[in-house]
Batch of 2 targets.
Target 1
Amino acid sequence: MPFDTVHEGWSIYKTKDGAVIKMKLILLKLLLTDVDESGNPLFAAGSNLIFAVTVPHEMKGAPNDQPVTQKQIQDSLVESDIPFETVKEEWNTYNAEGAVVNVKPIATVISRSSLFDGNGDPIYYIQYQPIVKGDVAPEVRRKFLKIKREKLPKVKGNHRS
């Protein structure tokens, strides 16, 4: 489903070990999966996250230009579930066929590995939860009900061949 980006902001966290972690969710794809009986659209989203880490000089290590996998990061965790404070969490806002879709990624667990990136910053493993909410005006709900009737595939009950 086509959408326009209205705003994509950063969520910022400060960890007990002194790191400042910035996280941004970028929406790549928005799929209309269903429309409820009131005309509220239900979406599935494809997204990507980007991170930026700033640490005190004493936390830096030898720069590593080699790519690392998520498994390597998970296997090299030296501090799990680091306490952190939320500095800022912004809603990303998108307009999709008149529906306003808001998405906010929220960090739930931050852990530090023994690995370092190309700048010598420690590589963190961040678990997060995306929160999605929408706002649809009554006239737009009618439009989505029409889309449901005309374009969304009909889902039949489970049956075996």
Target 2
Amino acid sequence: MAGNAGNAGNAGNAGNAGGVGAVNTGSAGVFVLADRVDLPFVTVDFPPGQAISANRNTMLTEFPDKYWAGEWRAWCVLSQYAATNWQAIAVADWSANNVPQELDELVTAARDERADALAEIISQNEEFASYFVGLLTIRQAGYPCTFRLIDLASIVATYTVLYFKGGTKVYKPRPRPSQLCPALLPPVPVPGHPSYPSGHSTEAHLIARVLIDVLAVSPNYGYLTNDLLALAARIARNREIAGLHYPSDSKAGADLALAILPLLQSIAEYTTVLPLARAEWT
């Protein structure tokens, strides 16, 4: 499914494509309504002799904007972001890092931190946007536009990071740590795409940056900014402890998110939804 596109960071975080939908973004299909076989609801007469199927909404002439599920809206407007100069983002060469030293650091992390971090590693493998939602103690019903921007950040981050994972003129696609050191034995499946930059780090940091932008009008802006960035860093770090990413992958993802942000802020969807999202916090 679109959710968890190979854990490119968690396309799964977008709506019910795997992540935010788990905390109710309003995605269609998150529940199933049973109906009777012998008397489907649409065939009921109420009052007797008056078919409810004759009740038609003649006022609705187009799909209401508020009915969009966040992830599908994000896919719909992705072309706006794609029209920016996003491919010109400069991403550093990973081979400039000391790979043996980074592998040694991951071995130490697996020994000293993995057992303690395992629950988070597994929980955040499929989706992690719910951690941001939990941190802010919000629900989709009260903050629909905030959720919409979370979905947009998720899709844009995944789209962008997968392009740079494929390599550039500056660097080749980077092998996963466990491909160089099999004994790292990650406790979750190793994604089927290159290691650099970290998708989890890119997406988590972009979600955090977008939420910080939304919260610029909130009296809680100061401490929530630190909380959001700390959570993004922790999500990225957990992927290192799992043996899935090098520390330099995480840093590149954080840097990539910061470079994506002004491009995302320039598109029509973002400029339209941002003031609506901020209004939810004032």
